[in-house]
Amino acid sequence: MRGIWKRLGFLAALILVIGAPVLGALAVRWKVSDLGAGKPPGAGRVAWVAEGKLWVKDLPDGKVRQLAAGENISRPAWSPTGRWLLFRHGEDLWLVGVGRGEARCVVQRVDEFAWSPAADVFACTAGGELCAGEPAKERPRVLVKREAGFDFRRIAWSPDGKWVAFERLKVGEGGAGQAGIWKVDAASGAVVRVYTSRLCFDREMGVVGEVPRLAGWSPDGEMVLLWRGPCSASIEADGLPLGLAPADGCEEPVPVVGKGWNWESAVLVRPGFVAAAPGKLALVIGAGRDTWTNKRLAVYDFRSGGLAYLTGTDQAAVDPAFSPYGKFLVYSAGPAGKGEETQAELRSLLGGRKLWAVDTDGGKPRRLTNDPAYRDERPFFSADGRYILFVRLDGENKASLWLVQPDGSGLEQVVESIGLLTGDFTFGYYGAVAWDELFAYWPGVADAALINAAKGTPEAKKLLARYPWAKIVVDRSGKSAVDFRVDKLEGDDKPGLYLRLRVFIDPETNTPADRFLDLNGRVIRTEIFRYLDEETVFGTKVPYLNPAYGVYLEFPRHWRPRPGYGDVAGIPASCGGDDGFFSLGAMNGEGLTPEEVARHEASHKLKPYGGRPRLEKITVNGREGYFVFPSPELGVGAGACCVVPYPRPVVITGEKYHYFILYADVKHIRDLAASLRFL
Fold first, then answer.
1. pTM for the model
2. For residue 28, what are the CA distances in angstroms to 133, 188, 620?
3. Do 120 and 510 touch, CB atoms closer than 8 A?
């Protein structure tokens, strides 16, 4: 029963009801160095290792250029603007600009490294410290200092580039240890615990306890993805259950697959087995380190918590990649083995891997490539979705890079040969090949980098300060542009009033260029700042949209976000003024009627509605619900609430909820509820 009554937002709302009241936005502005790299290529840019050298080419038909040479060059990695490359040179981390300049060592004896998705800033671990560096600066700065006994492991940037999540482990024979995931603010260095577990050392059993492994972030940056399992390399190799932990910290993560942390729903602890897109997560599910059997592709919906398998048991899928807007997936797959194959038969199974595509909302997978002379793996989409880059391996262990269009047409070889491959390398670790050691693809300026540049404009800052819930959309149909848009939802589904700021991005420098304001069809190109101050497009009430809670409503235009009541994905959960307020909440309530949930709310032991609260049955957005009004003695300034079941359960920060609860003052609760819509 405890889970049924779990609620979100109640404590904040309780403060609202009884009385008392910051939302901050960290804007990271950056400048691209002038490298003279020229016009961005149409199909992206690729870097690869061959003949002991690092090479680069603009796709599809640019000139091949050498950037660096030397023994043991590996693992190239592109900055989000495509102007810089990090790579390993032996044990050290090196940096080189694509346009001009010599390669230079930036960190010695590096462990892990990764570029921010939003700016040309990188994070790395070395010497027991976590650091952040920029191409224009000679040395990285320390974000997390060395701490005795702790070892850094995986790192991952948040989608907006504000945080770096990191994994640390401390274990020794002398006493208790700890394993966990933290995050550090890339600007201030402030460290926040995400999830930790205790370890101990037993002389017979070794390290005892659970170790979380960092897998990445949810697309909205609200959740951290992690694998969870014992401190055992052998068990880890067979895959571990994947889970979600709120990025602000939790005591118990939520499993992605099923209700428990079971081995049958394991996902291999490899980066190519998990991919994210707005609102979705693609994962290859199936225990066992053999990648040629028991590997099915599935999609997890962050909003509903639902999981849908997209492939059957006859295929063994690897390397999923989302199209830019998450509408379909491309992946590599071959016929599934039975687990009894000889080495030669296994190589034949791996040789049957081809590229396939499938819609994320279901449908039959369709084959994109079908040349029996090649094995096709590791696909990547270009930023505009017009191309897919992938690696092909022939029967003589020669690997090459190719482009193909999403419908299977336009197949073209773009790099003749990468690496100096051996049979052991191409067989991989039980069929999983570490292609990121040999090549890296820059698909074009990522959405996150375009949005980050547009957010740096004074006009965007002004609009987002007023409408933090504005929808942000990247448009690549012509000139690259970013739209910040607020829409009023009409009851009859007709187009409503809207406000839009469009910021164009210079493709050569990835910096803001022209911009205009669109006030419901009235285009303004000068004095935009003044018009943003004076606009009254929506009249006396402004639209509010919260995708995390799945709701839309309208409130008085003079209300503002209320400090101290939190936010989800940057959108405030409470707004108000001197004359009233509203706040969002949710309750599990599975199996309960709206009246039962409302009575439970009204009878809370802290008595936020006084000793004689009153229930009133209503219909909200076509759904039966209840108002809970406070006792008369509390007065007109007291708080009330509206309880309404969701059309479908929603998942907020990893927890599933069946009921939405709108908290507000008595004076405004009816008007707010009347404007409520479920998304």
1. 0.85
2. 15, 12, 41
3. no
